[in-house]
Amino acid sequence: MDSPCPIIYEDKHLLVVNKFPGFVVQGTPGKNNLWKALKDYIKHRDQKPGEAFLAVVHRLDKLVSGALVFAKRSKAAGRLSQAIREGKFFKVYLAVTEGIPTEEGLILQKFFWDHKKKKAIVKDVSSSFEGKICITFLKILNKKRGRAIVLLAPITGRKHQLRAVLSSLQAPVVGDKKYGSKTRLKYPAILLHSFFVSFPHPVEKEEVSFFAPIPAYFPRLYLDKSKFWDFFYKVKKLQEAKVSEEFVTCSTCAWRAVCTKRFQFDNTKPIKCPDYSPDYELLKKRKKDEEKEVDKEKD
User: In terms of pTM, does the model score above 0.85?
Assistant: First the structure.
């Protein structure tokens, strides 16, 4: 019995695979349920008398390929979930877009999930649109013949986030008909790939990193290593700040905002809010004053 998809790494605590498109990660048991297929494979391979333990750490959409992490122990599952909550679990995606994204760098938007249409809707963070904050970091690597190759990192983990964000930037993922692509692929896939994951090992504690080979149906491309690592280190800085006071609340729009003075990356634009100040200390003081006022009202 063969593995349902290539195994990138495995030990007693972790399983990292290169997911094929067309698989649902977890859901109603069936032949396209990757979680169940991997459990059956491990049970057969290791000749386990009972059911193999395997926990889903994060998910990829059915049409998306790439690095996907599972936990093989309950303690490992808990620690990896904690790493995600603490902003220590990093993911970088590679996409080919139909059109050139109209923005690059740090993209701040509002997110809403439309249950009827089963798709995400994102709007500019300064709009009156109601929804959750949605933060994405994006870098265009190459542009050619109306298409672009981009690196993306979801600083927030919203459903269909990257697909919806690229669509809002007039550059849907190639093959993603749900979000506006006019290209039909021969495979049940879109050109969005979970290229890289990095996180602390749940037992050994040191940071481990894994690349997922790019599928053959992607166009041939050259990825500059220095550009990739520069992108990744900026993502780390942003994501680690997400759970600290580097992200502060704007008293006017009530959305969590990035201090762009401290995170002045290439092409990063300040948040569009009439009450926003790039002075981090001023924002921090304002936040503390608001908390004191709330405490006084409670007393």
Answer: no
